[in-house]
Structure formats: C-alpha cells, structure tokens
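Translate sequence into structure tokens.
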Amino acid sequence: MLEGRPPVAFIRISVDLDLTKRLDQTLKNHYYNSSMFLAFPLAVQSTSLTLAGLEGWLDNAAFAVLFAAMLAYWSGLAFSNVKVMPLIGGVCMAAGNLCMAALLTARWIEGGYFPLSNLYESLFFIAWGITAVHFAAERMSGSRWIGAVTSPVAMAIAAFAALTLPDKMQVSEPLVPALKSNWLMMHVSVMLISYSALMVGSLIAIAFLIITRGQAVELKGSSVGTGSFRDRKYMLKRAEKATATESAVAEPLSSVSAGGGTALLESPAAVMASTAQPLSLQRLTLADTLDNISYRIIGLGFPLLTIGIIAGAVWANEAWGSYWSWDPKETWALITWLVFAAYLHARITKGWQGRRPAILAASGFVVVWICYLGVNILGKGLHCYGWFF
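Result follows.
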C-alpha cells in the first residue's frame, strides 16, 4: 500500500520548489509593473523636455524667417525689376506664420491651457495674427508695400519675445486663479486678433502717408468699399512750369473717374509754386488701393475689438463683481475704441478720405501699442498677470 506513494521528504521538496517558482514569478511581475510605473513619469518628463526644446527652436526660426521676409520685401521695393523678391518674402512670411502656429500649439500641449497667459505667449500670438491678416491684405491689394510695412513689425515682435525677454518669462507656468476660466480664450484671443488687424490697417495707412508725402491728396469713391479703383481711368494733368500763365495756374489738377469717383490734388497753385511734382498715375492708383485696403482692415478689427471689450466686461463681472473698474488696461482699451470709432465715423459719415483719416489711423497704431504693452510697463492694474510687474 505504501509502495505507490512518494516519500514525505520528496513531497515537501516538490511543494517548496513550486512555491519558489510562484514567488519568483510574482516578484518578476511586481518588478515589471514597478518599472513601468516609474518609467511613465520619466517618459512624460522626456516629452516635456522635448517640447521645451522644440519651442526654443521654433521661436528662433520664426524670428529668422521673418527677418528674411523683411529683407526680401524691402529689396523688392528697392529693385522693382526683380519680380522674385516679393515671392520670396511671401514664402518667408508663410513659414513664420507656421512656425508661430506650431510654437503656440506646443505651448498649449505643454501647459494644458490656451497659450495666452503671459507676455511671451501673447507677443507670438499677436505676431501670428499680423502675418495672417497680412496675407488677406496682400491678396486684396497685390502690392508689395503691404509686406514692406507688416514684416518689420512682426519680426520685431518675434525678436523681442525670443531674444529679449528673460528665460523666466518664457517658461510655461500654471495659470493664476483669476485666469482659470473659459473666458480666457474668448476674451483674450479676440482682443489680440483685433489688435493685429488694427495694427495692419494702421501700418497700411502709414504706407499711404509715405507714398503721398508732400501732396495734399483727397481720394473719393472708395470709402464704401466698392473697389472702384480697379476700374478707374485716371487722366492726370501735369502742373505747368513756373512761367505758365495765370489761367494755367488756376486750372484744377484732377483725375476723373469713369465711375464717378475722383482723386484730387488740392491747391494746384501751391503745388506749382513748390518744386514738388504731382503724383504719377501708377503712384496715385497705388495710394487709392492702400487707402481702401486700410479702411477695410480697420473695419474688420474694430468689431472684433468691440466684441473683445464686451466679453472682458462680462468676465470682469464674473471674476471681480464689476463690469467696469477703470483699470488702466480697460481705460486704454476704451481710448483705442474711441480712436478707431472716430476714424470710421469720419470715413463713413463725413466722407473723409486721403491723408486726414490716414493720419488718424497712424495715431491709432501708437494707441494700440500703449493699450497692449505700455500700460503694463508703466502702470499697475488687474491685467498685469505674467508681465513686467
């Protein structure tokens, strides 16, 4: 009966070996799971470091291609026979736009929130907006002057953000409690896009002032945005020499539009008395185009500014219990709104065109920068999160 059974010692050894194998397998599984658990934070940290390195490469690349775009557009103005330079400038502007879009996307992934919480992020967002509006304006006008005035500003913003700001201001940090709201994307993004559009419109007005310098130009027929400058046939009458008769001096120097609009050079006697020559057909057509495009772009930015201010008031009431507190940023946003409201009012109801509204729009460029950046440098307020103060 006992011959078929294994010895007791053999049974004990077999049980011990089986327990040892099970314990070894358990330890292996525990080590594998532990190593996976420890490796996950390391992988996340490695990804974070990769994103940080990518951001550093993208901001420098954006500055470099925007600098190349500026050189290309300026070379295109200086050497008008070289047709390829504006094309190179457009390609570089597109590359800069893509670099800044990738940079903002990487910041969004790294921080987990829409990247508009500090100066570094908002500067690149505005530069991205300027390049985006640039393409719309350039497509409507077909003029290399658009890139000649927008590319230096976009390049300067990228250079200031990437090369001038200290490293601690470029790091993505957790949001302060007041910014942890869905209104961050709605209010701040709309405000910055409106700033970009208003800046581009103002820069085109500055280009108009440069082209028409020394001339009292009054353009008629483009404020309503009919695009009549495309069909207009100009018949310019040159000023006579200084020895011309009084009747020739009194003759008005004007251009007649087939569609009823005119482009008038005022005070022909004063023009003839000076050494300045009236604008050529090509330059006068270009001035009319820039005047119209400036008006359209500002007409785009102004409603966005209005929406952004209203959204900010609603958010302020939700966060601070008051729709309006006359914070320095709020005050200058209102001043900016009034300046461009006066510009549009003068264009639409008063019929202002030419140099007078262009001067008002050019002053708006300075006001926008004071509202966006100057208030945060010179004064303290509720809108100084992640800035100099």
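Note: Residues 43-174 form a domain with the Four Helix Bundle (Hemerythrin (Met), subunit A) fold (CATH 1.20.120).
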